[in-house]
Each structure stands twice: as C-alpha cells, then as structure tokens.
C-alpha cells in the first residue's frame, strides 16, 4: 500500500484561518519562521486520518480552533475542517474531517448557546455518517500505529512515542525467520522452556535467589554438622576397653592371690613361732587366729562401707553423665530448629513483601476500573445537513447515536475486560501467595513451638545436671572414719585389744611375731588398694562404653545431615548449571540478535542488551549511530537519519509506504533520502511567510 499527499487544505485549524498546499504527490519543503504553522501541516494530516495531532493528542488536550487575539477565546460559529486528496496505490481519494459547533437556543432564551461539538466525515464528497465507517476505511489502507511509525522519524526511536519494550518486540519480529535467530532458539530450547515467557533478567534473578537460599540452607546444615562433630565424645575401642579391663582384673586377681598366700604364710609363721610349749602355742595360736578374725571383720566392715559409697558415687556420676548427654542433645536440636526458624522467617518476609506489591497493583487496577466505569457516553449527533441546512431525519440521528454508543460501549467493555482479566491473574497470584504465606506461617509456628519445647527441655536438663552436680560425692576417708567411730567397730577394736593382751599373757611371743602381724596388716591394705584400683578402672570402662553409644547416635545424625547437605549441594550445582546455561543463552542472543538486526539497517545500530555493575545482562533497546553513540547523545541530524532508516526497514516489512514528515529539517543538510516515500521537510527559515517548494 502506497499513500501520497496530492493536496492538503485547512480551514480554522490550530490558528490557520485558510491554507491550501498542493504537493502533487511529490517531495516538498515547507519553509517559514517559527510559529508560522509548519508543524500544523503535519498535525492537520494526522488529525484528518485519526483525530489526533502528530504527538498523539486529541481535541481534549490540544486546541484545534483558531483563537481571537482580542478576546483570547476561539472565534465562534466558524467552520473547522481539514481536507486532503490522497493518492492510494495510484487511485485518488478525497477525505474531509469537520469539527462542528452545535449551537442551540434553549427554551425561553433569546440567544443561542454552544452545546458541544460534532464531527463529520466525507469520502470522495460522500458523508459516511459515522466515525466508525471512516476509521474502517482508513484502517483498510493502513493501521494507525503503522502510519505513525512510517510518517514520523522520531516515532520509533524516541521513548516519548514508543517504549523500549515495544521497540524491542518490533525489532525481534523482524528477524523471527532469520536462520541465525532460529538456530539460537533451537540450541537453547531448554532455556526458553524454563523462561516460560518471563524476561531473561527476571529468570536469572530468580535463579540467583534460589541458589542463595540453597547456599544458606547448605551452610546451616554444614554448620550443624561441624557443631555435632565438635561435640562428639572421644571415640573408644570397645574391644580394647574390655581387653584392658580383663587385664586389670587378671592383674588384681593375681595380686590378691599372691598377697593372700603371703598372709597365709604369715599366719603359719605366727602359728609355729613357739613350738616349745605345745599347749601355750596352741592357745596362743587360737587367740591370734581369733585376733586375725576380728581384724578381718573390722577391715570387712570398712570395705563394705567404702564399696557402698563407691557404688553411690558411681550412680551419681552416671546420672550426671546421662543428664549432660540429654542436655547436649536438646541443645543441638534447639540450634537446628532455631536455624530453620530464621530461614523460614526470611522466606516469609520475602513472600509478604511480594504480596504487598501485588495488593498495590490490584488497588491501582481497581482505581482504573472505577475511572473507566464512571466514564459516561458523551456524543451529540449532527442534526442538520452540512450541505442543504435541512434537519436530518431522526432515524439517521438515532442511528449515528446508536453506532457511536455501541462503539463507545465496546471500547469501554474491552478496556474493563482487560482490567478484570489482569485483576483476576493478580488475585490468583495473591491467592497462591497467601497460601504460600499461610503454609510458611504454619511452619514458623510449628518450628517456634519446637524451639520453645527445646528450650524447656534444655532448662529441665540444665536444672537436672545442676541438681545432680550439687549432690556431694561420698568421701571414702570420711566413710572409714565413720565406720571406725561406730559402736560396732569400737567393740571389735576393744575385743582385738583384749585378745592381744590375752595373747601376750599366754605367751611371750618372739619379737618377730609383731613384725609378722604388722606385715600382715600392710598386705591386707595392699589387697584393698588393688580392689579399689580395679573398681575405678571398671567405672571408667563403663563410662567409655556409654560414650560410644552416644557417639554412634550422633554419627548417625551426622550421616543424615550429610544426606540433606548433599541435596542442597546438588540444588546449588543445578542452579549454577542453569545460571551458566542462561549466560550462554544471553551471549548467543547478544551475538546473534544485534548482528542480525544490524544488517537490516544502513545507518541505525541497535543496542539490545546492557551490562549491570555486577556483570549481569539486562534487556534494553536503544538506537545508536554507526559509531555507537546512543540516541540520547546524538545530534538532531543523526536522529532524523536513524529514524528514516527505521522507516525504510519497516516500510519494506509492513508492505506500506506513507508520507514522511521531517520536522526541524533545517538541522540536516541532506535533502534527498533513499526511500520510496514522499518526503515533506519542515524547515525553519527567516522569511516573511510560509512557502511550499516541491521538487
């Protein structure tokens, strides 16, 4: 589709009282001083076709009428219209759009008052009655967005007209079928599938968040494992402990047996010390045997009391050990639950923040919905024929009003449906987020309860360890002193003294007998020391075997934690692989897209990606000149050249050609451009009046 302007006429349009421009379908230059109406020519052309100026403003936002300098108000009762003869694919068509004042005389009044405006639309001299019919005709030639793109060099490259996302999408559409772009899509189908329509930067940010969360969980578990390992009791070899105990027991038994033999030998020596007098010897031996029995009874009473004290001490120490073990287990469990609680709170905070953003978006949609619902239909149909002045039939007015109302309601419904659809999606996401928040809150509550239970259990076991530790150990020396102070022991000691006195009375024993008796006492003490030493070793062995059980339980816990750590380590590795794959995809896209797109343009170059401070890649779309200067830093001439380059590319892509208006064209020396389109240059020049120059 090729459109050229043959003639353009204006009446009372934006300060121009009357103007007639004949282009003849040729390139032209309109020269004149500032404020002389050059840009008005462009505005008139776009308003004729679409009811908007070239900046996309409607009559609600720009003043169409001519202002009377004397009153500062528009001239009343004037005709306002734009008419053009367009050559469309070699066929001439005459279009006219009129902006009509609707003056009526209220009942009981003498003067007419302005009651609004109506529009009239004519095609080849025929009133098409409705705006819808007129718009349908224009849309059949060229869509409004395409027309803006093909007529204004600034439209596609300037953010005030087209956002970078719209610009990027349009450029990517140009290269969808290019083999290099297609190959990138095929090679990275796995990444595109994971993107699921999301922005690559958002996808990479989500991967980073997920990886960091997995790393935090991994670090927490590894910290727990280190804590458990540090708290592991020293490992004991059960067989070695048992073997050592057997050796000690054999050593004790051997020593006791040898010492007992010595006692028996001493007893025999004592018994045979005085063989001279058999009777005295027998009596003396009997007395000394009785003395020995009393001494044994005295020693046994002490040993019995000490053994009971040792058993009590052993029971106390075992109870403290078990309580301390329970305290350690409760402390470790509390640390694990506390770390999990911290992680869950962080996740909950992130979800609640996300929900707040969703709620704000939903509230904004609600405001838009109310505004759209409150927008009322405002239309006044033309009541008089613009040619004959006669009243138009009521049915025609009604049809025009109905058509306008239907168009208004359809557009309003489309907007509201779009708002409701978006609101529904946000509500669903809020519902999903609420479910996630509720689940996290339940988990936080559950883990909080566990932490409180752990703290209670820790407190209870701490109290128990403290209580048991406050119980004093039995002092064996004190126990022996108590036994010696008892009446029973004193009676035995007294009996021993009496028997000794009797023994000395019955015989005058040789001096060596006393030595033998003392030696016997020393041997008895050695026997008791052997037994006491073994008892201590036996207690230590039992403690070592108990520690081994605790160590085995904690080692099993370590293995379980290591399994969890492996899961998180695998997740981190998977995240890192996905990040690397996404980076490869971005690089492939950067390498291919900018090259493929760049080959389509002669002047304009495109920066489709930018790097962040942390080395990430974000999508963008900004035009640059051949030297890489971005749009924001270009001079006006280069901006126009880049814009015309874009028009040429998209004109070929769309298959349409429309007149190109170059405003402020005095900033560029070039007057001819390699394009099929009709070019109309608007040049500021210090001359008396507006001048049209055609080729």
Concise overview:
The chain is an alpha+beta fold.
Keywords, separated by commas or semicolons:
695 residues; Rossmann fold; alpha+beta; four-stranded mixed sheet; 63% helix
Please provide a written account of the structure.
The strands form four sheets. A six-stranded antiparallel sheet has the order 2-1-6-7-8-9, with helices on one face. A four-stranded mixed sheet has the order 12-13-3-14, with helices on one face. Helix 8 packs antiparallel against helix 13, helix 9 packs antiparallel against helix 10 and helix 9 packs across helix 11. With 695 residues, it is an alpha+beta fold. The model has no long low-confidence stretch (mean pLDDT 83). A hairpin with a 2-residue loop joins strand 1 and strand 2. It is 63% helix and 13% strand. The two termini are 23 Å apart. It is rod-shaped, with a radius of gyration of 53 Å. The chain has a domain of 179 residues: Rossmann fold (3-Layer(aba) Sandwich).
Q: How much strand?
A: 5-15%
Note the run of SSEs as H and E. EEEHEEEEEEHHHHHHHHHHHHEEHEEE
Q: Structural class, from helix and strand content? A: alpha+beta
List low-pLDDT spans. none
Largest sheet: 6 strands, antiparallel
What is the name of the CATH topology of one domain?
A: Rossmann fold
Just name the CATH architecture of one domain.
Answer: 3-Layer(aba) Sandwich
What is the highest CATH level, the class of one domain?
Alpha Beta
Rounded to the nearest angstrom, the radius of gyration is 53 Å
Q: What share of the residues lie within helices? A: 55-70%
Q: Cα distance, first to last residue? A: 23 Å
- Figure out the total of helices: 14
Total DSSP E strands: 14
Q: If strands are numbered along the chain, what order do they take across the biggest sheet?
A: 2-1-6-7-8-9
What is the overall pLDDT average? 83
- Shape assignment: rod-shaped
